[in-house]
Structures are given as C-alpha cells and as structure tokens.
Amino acid sequence: MTTGSIGIEFQLRRGQSPQGLDYQVLQIQLTDSIVGPEELGAIALPKGIDTRIGVILDGRAPIWLYGYLIHELHPTAWVACHDPRLGGVVVATHLKGVQVGEVIPLLPDGDRLHPALMVVGPPDSGKSVFSHRLFQTLLVNHPNIYLQRANWDGEGNYTLELPPDQDPEVFKAANKGGLTERFFPYHANSILALRRQKDLTIVDVGGMVQPEKQPILEACTHYLIISSRREEVERWHEFCRDRGNLTPVAVIHSTLEECEVIHQEHPVLEVTCGPWIRGNACPVPDLVLAEIQKLLPSTSSLTS
Q1: What is the reported pTM?
Q2: Which residues lie below 8 Å from residue 37, measured CB to CB, with a gap of 6+?
Q3: 205 within 8 A of 215, measured Cβ to Cβ
Q4: Which phi and psi (to 5°) does residue 25 adopt?
Q5: What residues does 11 pair with on adjacent strands?
Q6: 148-199, pLDDT tens digit by residue?
C-alpha cells in the first residue's frame, strides 16, 4: 500500500474478468474523514502500474480525485470507474476491443447474497435523514456497505451534507425525476448486484405504498419502518412483511422532540425517537443499531 497524500492511500491489485480480460484495480482509501483538493499536489501513484493493461478505480472518494486519477492514468491501456451496481465502466481507452462505455464485469466475492434493508414509512418522517445517519454510523467500522437511493425526488447524501446556508430544496428540484416503467426494475437489479458485493445494502425507497415497488420488495430481505404517523405503520407492515415476505428489523416512531423511548423489544423492536432533521439528527438508538448489526457478518460486528 502506498500513501498518496496525508489523507489518501492507494492499494494496487491484479484481476481478470470472467471473459479473460486482465486488469488492475487501484483501490482508493481515505484515511482522514476530511480531504481537500490541496492534497492533489502530494499524491503519488503506487509503483508497479502496468500501462499495457487497464486500470479500474475503486473506492469512496470525491469526484475531483477521480478526475485527477483518470488524467494521471491516461498512459494505461484503458481506465474504468467501478460502480458496484454495474461493474467497471470504461471512461477512457487506447486498446482496440475495449470501448468507452463498456462495462467490465468484476467477479463477486463468493456466491452469497448479503442482506438488503429497506427503510420505509410515510412522507416527512425522516427516512432520508435516518438512512444517511445510519449509513455514516456503520461506515466508520464497516466500510463495505452501500446506501441506495431508490427514489426520484432528487434527495441524496449530497443534499444532506450541504452547508447550513444552502437550501436543499433548490437542489432537489433541479434533480427531481419521475416514475417510469424501468425505474424500479432498474433499482431492483442494482440492489441484487450490490448484495453480491456489499455486506449490507440500505435502500431508501420513498414514502408511498405502490404496487410498482414490487421488484424492490423481491430484491430486499429486511425492512425498517420510520413513521411520524402511528396509523401508517400497519400499512407498511402489510406491504413489506405480508406482500414482500420481508423480515422486520424495527419500528421507529419519529418525533420533532429530543427523546428516546423504548416501547418494546419483542417480537419487533419499537421505539420513539428524534428529531430526524437535516443538520440536527439524533444518534441512531443503540438498540436499533444492535438489531441492524445482526445483519452484518459476525466478524465485523460493531460495538455501541
């Protein structure tokens, strides 16, 4: 492993696609929770990069770091960016037979499908904020997880991480999409691909009970309800448990008040807690976190 800068490290390994195409994977790891563009000048790529074959960039990193690395790796046969929902997407090539836009399939680690947790509930209950807080909490000690936003409302991690003076509704409106016939089948296929590679996939699926979401139900394994309206909870149980045959993990009654009340632990954990507001979200309750940790490999369980 080679340190690229103060907060960025790289690891280089070799691989081969199922079709026999040799490649290198340049794994990016951020060793500091905050890295800035000023670190680009200190980056040193690992020694031993073979320019005769392609390189697939992999890892969570800012888009400007990916742009810099694509430029620096221009002498290699081809460069791809790894999207775990698809594979290695080729973005530059000098090699005949490998085209821009081609997806290089990567072999998954084993044949097991790992769990996928749907976060569901009615609108304005804090689903997106909770999903983001849960993801960030787990990510500290368990990096091999993924948060899939399977909704078209334009909201995502980027809106939740905006500075306080930026209005997320402006960005959501600019990126809002709409329901098409391909939307939920596409996300269902993405979830299945993620389950082959990630130890846990968290799925934010939006606030409406819709028959069109049946492909998502079939792709997931578990669900968690977060609801600001108690009367809506049973509808989501019927949709996820009865129609989708998914396993419930917990029910969170969300509130704008600062509180944490445990109502029951069995048969399904039920708590009231909050608030779940951008910039003012409460921590994920320990009991809720413990239930979700049970879905992760036992070798990587977190401590509260």
Answers
A1: 0.77
A2: 62, 64
A3: no
A4: -110, 120
A5: 27
A6: 988 766 566 655 665 666 666 665 556 666 668 888 999 999 999 999 889 9
- Judge contact between 273 and 285, C-beta under 8 A: yes
Region of 204 (left: φ > 0; alpha: ψ -120 to 50; beta: rest) is beta
> Under a CB-based contact definition with an 8 Å cutoff, are residues 289 and 140 in contact?
no
Using CA atoms, how far apart are residues 287 and 275, in angstroms rounded to an integer? 17
Residue type, 39: E
β partners of residue 81? 57, 89
Q: Which of 45, 41, 56, 144 is nearest to 93 (CA)?
A: 56
Structure tokens at 289: 């976190």
Secondary structure string (H, E, C) spanning the chain: CEECCCCEEEEEEEEECCCCCEEEEEEEEECCCCCCHHHHHHCCCCCCCCCCCEEEEECCCCHHHHHHHHHHCCCCCEEEEEECCCEEEEEEECCCCCCCCCEECCCCCCCCCCCEEEEECCCCCCHHHHHHHHHHHHHCCCCCEEEEECCCCCCCHHHHCCCCCCCHHHHHHHHCCCCCCCHHHHHHHHHHHHHCCCCEEEEECCCCCCHHHHHHHHHCCEEEEEECCHHHHHHHHHHHHHHCCCEEEEEEEECCCCEEEEEECCCCEEEEEECCCCCCCCCCCHHHHHHHHCCCCHHHCCCC
Residue 23: phi and psi, rounded to 5, are -155, 170
